[in-house]
Write a structure and sequence with these properties.
alpha/beta, Rossmann fold, 10 helices, 7 strands
Length: 271
C-alpha cells in the first residue's frame, strides 16, 4: 500500500501533514509535498529517505489546479494516494465574525480539497485503485462553538468524501475520513479571529493535545486496516463525536452550557 507508491500530501510544511509525510516515507512511499511554504517543504524533502517532489501551490488557485495535478502525475506516472490536509481554523463567535472569514475558510478547507480531488479522481478511477484521505475534524462532526465557519467547512468535507467513497468503491478506490481532535500544531495560533486576521496565540487544549507523530501513525494504521472513518481524538473530544450520533440533544445542551460558562473568553474571544 505504501512501498514504492506515490503519495501526495497537501499542507505538508507543518503539523499533521509534515508528520504524515515522514511516516509515509518511513513506510517506503514516494512523496509529493505541497503547501505554500516552499522553504519548509524543501527542508522536509531533505529529511525523507525516499524520492520526493516539492510542488508548492496556493490551495485556492482553482484555475491552475488541473495543471498542478498534471505535474504531479507526470513526475512518477501515477498518484496512488492523495491526502487532503491543508486547512485553516477559526476562533470567534458567529455574531461577531466578518463574512470574509466564512469565505476564506470555506475556500481553503472545503473547495480547495474538492478541486484537487476532482482533478485527480478521473485518473484514479481509470487506474482502478487509489486511496484518498480527508483530514476533517471533530468539529466536522460536532458544531463546535467559536468555529462556525470551520465546522461548516469540515462538515462539508466529510459529506463530499463520503459521497466520493460511495461512488468509487466499485472502481477500487478507498476513502478514509479522519476527524482529529486536539493535535499539537499551529492550528489555533494561525486560526482566524472575527476580523479575518490570524489570532497569533494558541490555547491549552491544542498545546496539550496529541503529538502529530502519533496522529500520523494512527492514520497509517487505519489505512492498512481499510478503515473508512477515524475519529482521531481522546477523552472528552472522542466522546462528543460519539454523542452527536447517539444523543444529539444532550450534546446540544452541553455545548450551550459550555459557551454560557465563559468558553469564549477562555479562548480569547469576547463574550
Amino acid at each position: 500500500m505504501f512501498e514504492g507508491k506515490v503519495w501526495w500530501v497537501t499542507g505538508a510544511s507543518s503539523g499533521i501533514g509534515s508528520a504524515l509525510a515522514l511516516t509515509l516515507a518511513e513506510s517506503g512511499a514516494k512523496l509529493i509535498l505541497s503547501g505554500r511554504n516552499t522553504e519548509a517543504l524543501e527542508g522536509l524533502a531533505k529529511k525523507v529517505k525516499t524520492a520526493s517532489l516539492v510542488l508548492p501551490f496556493e490551495a485556492t488557485d482553482f484555475a491552475h489546479i488541473p495543471e498542478i495535478a498534471d505535474k504531479a502525475w507526470s513526475w512518477a506516472g501515477a498518484v496512488e494516494g492523495l491526502v487532503n490536509n491543508a486547512g485553516i481554523s477559526q476562533r470567534s463567535l458567529a455574531v461577531e465574525t466578518a463574512f470574509e472569514v466564512y469565505r476564506r475558510i470555506v475556500d481553503v478547507d472545503l473547495l480547495a480539497p474538492i478541486a484537487l480531488t476532482q482533478a485527480n479522481l478521473p485518473r484514479m478511477v481509470a487506474a482502478g485503485s487509489g486511496s484518498i484521505v480527508a483530514i476533517s475534524s471533530v468539529a466536522g462532526i460536532v458544531g463546535s462553538p467559536l468555529r462556525s465557519a470551520y465546522s461548516a467547512a469540515k462538515h462539508g468535507l466529510i459529506g463530499y468524501h463520503d459521497s466520493v467513497r460511495a461512488e468509487t468503491a466499485h472502481h477500487g478506490l478507498k476513502v478514509l475520513v479522519v476527524a482529529p481532535g486536539s493535535v499539537r500544531t499551529e492550528v489555533s495560533k494561525n486560526a482566524l479571529g472575527a476580523d479575518a486576521k490570524p489570532r497569533g496565540f494558541s490555547d491549552k487544549a491544542i498545546d496539550s493535545g496529541m503529538a502529530p507523530e502519533t496522529a500520523a501513525e494512527r492514520i497509517l494504521a487505519a489505512l492498512r486496516a481499510g478503515e473508512r472513518e477515524l475519529i482521531l481524538a481522546e477523552g472528552g473530544e472522542a466522546e462528543i463525536a460519539k454523542l452527536r450520533r447517539v444523543d444529539p440533544d444532550a450534546l446540544f445542551d452541553a455545548m450551550a452550557r459550555l459557551v454560557a460558562g465563559g468558553y469564549a473568553k477562555q479562548l480569547g474571544a469576547s463574550q
